[in-house]
Q: What sequence folds into this?
């Protein structure tokens, strides 16, 4: 698949915009997934995922064609997500009660329009719980956990994607796993 | 019982699939005796399974179209190139036409000089060839890129290419008069010539082979 992508990228570099549509088509689910798991909200995830593809397109000339495109793309996406998380952090916390409501917190405000028609309610709730716990992780742990367990990248790929030393990636994964374990042990 | 701190580290090494055989042996031995660590290990594995179980969601519909709509506009040149790539037959056909027209136009241009068959008593004036009054021109007269004015008499056929012939009341032509002045007729004339040439090439090729 990388070879197809590389071919398309070369066409894009020559200025053929349509070739990029195929690249987007190949990676859209992956990138959207990263953004969704990082941000916990479909609307924001769509917004950021589109932004990631847009940035990748604009900066395609700076992409080293000998490297893996997915790594580069995921890095753009995770960086954008982290920026977004940092920006919105002072605004509100998910646990904070929404003003004027009785016991409703921001969790109930999260759009839960994930399309899972054949899933039963119970598993839907479990999914939401897991997503909520992922969303609660500090972003440095969240990004490694998402890349490791949802995108199924290797430790080396994560280290490349996030531009972090391998040791740091490992430590963050360990801490992220422990934090999630504490939250999910009674599920 | 206080467990050695490195046991948790080993667990993570195990989960990262980077544990050494030595550490794994140690970990297994410890897990058999320590329920607390067993639970911890089990919880970690369960956590991973739970995170992995979050169903893979898909990007919204029209995602690609939305992205493509936001991209900066591409250069026009590329669009044209792509059109050519997607329509190879039309491209070949149009290329053929362009070359064809090119050669036609260039040979049309080249031919724009007045030429006339050589009869001593024809008079050439600017772009006009005149058969003077009282003269008799023997043989066929061909005028190219010019007009022919017949005041006298022509004993033969008249062909005017890309021009007109004017017959004075006293003028007389014994043979046929033909005017070739439309570009299409001229084109037809050229195509016939080209076809003839092509046939000649093939025929000479065959005769070469026979030799």
A:
């Amino acid at each position: 698949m990388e070879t197809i992508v590389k071919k398309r990228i070369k066409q894009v570099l020559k200025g053929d915009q349509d070739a990029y549509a195929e690249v987007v088509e190949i990676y859209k689910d992956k990138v959207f997934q990263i953004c969704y798991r990082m941000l916990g909200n479909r609307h924001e995830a769509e917004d950021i995922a589109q932004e990631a593809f847009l940035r990748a397109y604009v900066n395609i000339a700076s992409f080293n064609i000998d490297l893996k495109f997915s790594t580069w793309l995921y890095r753009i996406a995770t960086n954008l997500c982290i920026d977004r998380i940092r920006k919105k952090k002072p605004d509100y916390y998910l646990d904070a009660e929404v003003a004027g409501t009785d016991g409703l917190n921001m969790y109930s405000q999260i759009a839960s329009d994930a399309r899972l028609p054949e899933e039963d309610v119970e598993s839907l709730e479990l999914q939401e719980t897991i997503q909520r716990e992922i969303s609660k992780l500090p972003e440095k742990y969240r990004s490694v956990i998402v890349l490791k367990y949802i995108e199924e990248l290797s430790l080396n790929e994560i280290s490349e994607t996030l531009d972090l030393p391998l040791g740091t990636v490992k430590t963050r994964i360990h801490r992220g796993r422990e934090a999630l374990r504490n939250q999910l042990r009674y599920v | 019982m206080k467990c050695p701190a490195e046991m948790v580290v080993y667990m993570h090494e195990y989960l990262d699939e980077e544990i050494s055989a030595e550490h794994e042996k140690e970990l297994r031995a410890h897990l058999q005796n320590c329920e607390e660590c067993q639970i911890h290990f089990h919880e970690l594995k369960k956590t991973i399974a739970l995170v992995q179980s979050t169903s893979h969601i898909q990007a919204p519909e029209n995602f690609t179209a939305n992205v493509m709509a936001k991209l900066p506009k591409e250069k026009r040149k590329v669009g044209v190139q792509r059109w050519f790539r997607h329509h190879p037959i039309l491209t070949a056909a149009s290329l053929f036409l362009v070359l064809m027209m090119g050669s036609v136009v260039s040979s049309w241009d080249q031919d724009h000089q007045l030429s006339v068959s050589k009869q001593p008593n024809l008079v050439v004036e600017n772009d006009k060839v005149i058969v003077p009054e009282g003269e008799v021109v023997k043989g066929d007269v061909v005028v190219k890129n010019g007009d022919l004015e017949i005041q006298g008499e022509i004993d033969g056929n008249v062909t005017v290419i890309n021009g007109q012939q004017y017959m004075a009341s006293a003028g007389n032509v014994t043979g046929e008069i033909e005017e070739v002045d439309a570009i299409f007729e001229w084109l037809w004339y050229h195509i016939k010539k080209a076809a003839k040439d092509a046939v000649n090439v093939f025929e000479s090729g065959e005769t070469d082979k026979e030799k």
Observations:
- The longest helix of chain B spans residues 183-210.
- The radius of gyration of chain B is 46 Å.
